[in-house]
Amino acid sequence: MQHTVPSLKDGSLFKSEGFIDGQWVSASSGQTFEVTDPASGKVIGTMPEMSAKETEDAITAAAAALPAWRKKTGRERGRILRAWYQLMVDNAEDLAKLITWENGKPIADARGEVAYAAGFFEWFAEEAPRVGGDTISATVPGNRVFTTKEPVGVAGLITPWNFPAAMITRKIGPALAAGCTVVVKSPGETPFTAAALAELGIRAGVPKGVVNIVTALKNTPEVGSTLTSSPAVRKISFTGSTGVGKLLMKQSSQTLKKLSFELGGNAPFIVFDDADLDLAVAGAITSKFRSSGQTCVCANRLYIQSGIYDKFATAFAKKVEAFSLGSGFADVSAHVEDAVKKGGEVLVGGKAREDLGPNFYAPTVIRDMKSTMALSSEETFGPVAGLFKFDTEAEVVKLANAAEVGLAGYFFSKDVQRVYRVAEALEVGMVGVNTGLISDPASPFGGVKESGFGREGSRLGIDEYMVTKMVTLGGMGGELQT
User: pTM for the whole thing?
Assistant: First the structure.
């Protein structure tokens, strides 16, 4: 049963089909899957349950579109991306409503995501004409060496549900700027935002076959396997769990694809005694509870130095107590129960709010956390903040680095020497100092260890979709002719 689209200014942005070779298409099997509103549990609508066949069709379309797209100048590709950016800005409120509807995040968060997502199209519209090579001084007399950058080819992009717009534009933007064509596997939980973006791409002038969107829920593994095994796909970019990333990496090894993976995080958030307390509390709120704690870079372990621990706990709990509720998951309850069982004290929340629906969990703060608790080693991905006490820099850095993953880390301190020491010692790909929000299209986003490799955004982001070609010219030396 389909419900009314929530008062979109432009109802044509609501699409219930996949997008292949410039056409809106259903699954050849006729199968569909339901998408539900996480707040109410009601069905929003259906999308095609696509399979290997549609994925192969999309790959074929992308491969056919590649020669003409890569021949365009960077400036020409940039103009299309710039038009796409402007269309996102012009339709920002509709996009935000779609995100909130199928993802469940607060509308203010959704509006922020749309601005952030559009920013990747703007950024890479500007990077597209600025891709260049190098001239190299050869060691062989008479030789001249230079390099060029070329698009890697067809790229398979697999994105998660927690940022329905931004995770897609962060990959499509640099891929198209580089001259690649793409096949996007949209998230099964949030496919309508992706479809709306594709509709705006048509209006921006993206040629047919350059962007293709495959939709699936239960067939997601089949779609992923088809992308990773296809010789025509030369690049896979994936954002999601470390476990799935390892599987995709194994599958991709058969065709030796270029890969970039942004995988799980377990971000430490450190507050030293000399920190600005109000700034640290505000930063913790931003980092921990953004999108109900469901981002890869959310603070998961909050380490507070002993001298400021009690003050921080009181101030932080007071802020959280004033929150409205956001969606939660089963492992949120498990982590809270485990912490309480092992001596943690719940200051705020600590229980599901089933009276509001099956997906609501009270924002929770737990003090007196220990390293033996599940939350210290597992990513919660929900609105639970556990406060650990520490005494020294060396102690907290050791605790922070104990995780197998290393995506983001945060700390608060006014000591500039400490800032350098701790930033350099943390085993993460990104560090926030005196801030809980580090995402920016201009900044390279990515991790180390089991959080993956490659960088998204920034001037480095476009390199993930390019290969370097070296050209050596022989016989270029000698005397001038007379």
Answer: 0.92
